[in-house]
Amino acid sequence: MRAQFLFGLAVVSAVAAATPALAKNANVTKNDKYLAEETVNISDDPWECFNRPVFQFNLAFDKGIAKPFITMYDAVLPLDVRHAVGNVVSNLGEPLNAVHGALQLKPKIFFTSMWRFILNSTFGFAGIRDFARQDAGLHNMDQNLGKTLGHWGIGTGPYLVLPILGPSSARDTTGRVGDWFLDPVGWVMTTPEDVAESVVQGIDTRDSNAGVIEHLYYESLDPYVATRSTYRQHELFQGKTQE
Amino acid sequence: MRRLAASLVLLAVIVNAQSAMADDGVCRKVFDSTHARVMAVLQDSKDSTEQRRAMLIKLFDDTVDTGWVAQAVAGPYWDKASDSDRKNYVNVYRDFISGYYLGSVDGEDFATTKDIKLIEFTESSPNNFDMQIEIEQTDDAPAEVYLHLVSGGGTCRVHDFKVEGVSLLVSQKDEIQALGAAGGLPFITQQLAAHIAKKKN
After folding, report:
1. Chain A residues lying within 8 Å of B200, measured CB to CB
2. How many CA atoms lie within 13 A of A224 on its CB side?
3. Is the CB of residue B58 less than 8 Å away from at least one CB of chain A?
């Protein structure tokens, strides 16, 4: 799959040039200001004794069930159809995004989400086409109760791995439960419709994140550490950059 | 996080700044043409996905100071190691890191990347530069990538990049030092080599 010979050539020439420098400059990173500031310790994991077995279960589930299913899903459905599925699922989430925009007192999130829902439900043919993004430049502003709690100063709490659902935190897990009650679309759906929507959403999420999951679960040195690190960093980033 | 693999591919891009942005000249001279090179690979329709991936791996290796990164992420295990252990580790780490970030880039990633825009380029401290770029995608919101570059000795190399908050240095440090706890730098090297061999098979 990889053109190793080209890379190998690059490595050989790069190493030949760099090795003498490394031997002489044994501590080139010791006083590096950027390194000291940026490499924040995020590996604190007080529930690791619970998280690791659950992660191993998730890895086995993904390898045995989810990944083969998604491979078949990708083979059967063209990319445009898969994108349409994703658009419908995303559109059904816009009312909840608007609720959280209101709860966070952020009118931009509230009105953008409401407009996206209205435009995509009508001009986007019940959400099949993301008319709001493609034609009106309105991007999805994904929100949930975890982010709303974070906005109001509630810390993330310990890292937590959920069965099948994957990486989370104490705060975000609480948020998932709360969102089930807050979601306006859930108020008008029957339970079978709600379950069906959740299943389709799960399939779309797994499909959309296939590259990231492949990278973390199957190409990392330690999939558990890689997933935890990536999740925690992204969580911190989202907390800092929420509009 | 979506399209992380495709976004990470584009860490080597430094667009020639148009307006008056702080820059010591070396970074701009070295990377003036990189935007065009990366876009040419992404928009190339005649070469295979494998060939295009290989070109990106070459760009990655030319631009990221993988020797420095290898040392940085090993932390205390580098300090305790012998010169020969360090040399072996860096050799293997170079092979590992580009495959790790670019090895799973596929045709869909190439097809959905539309453009790369320079948002900001500032000098954070002498010879240290921070760059923010935005990767436009056809099927998702733009992805923000932050690069930290260091110039010196007539060259300019990337020391870190972050995609939506996920940093190369932090991620690698967590994984590498988790291994180091088990057996120091030689064990890290052994695990990296085993991982590379497994991927080849």
Report:
1. 2, 4
2. 21
3. yes
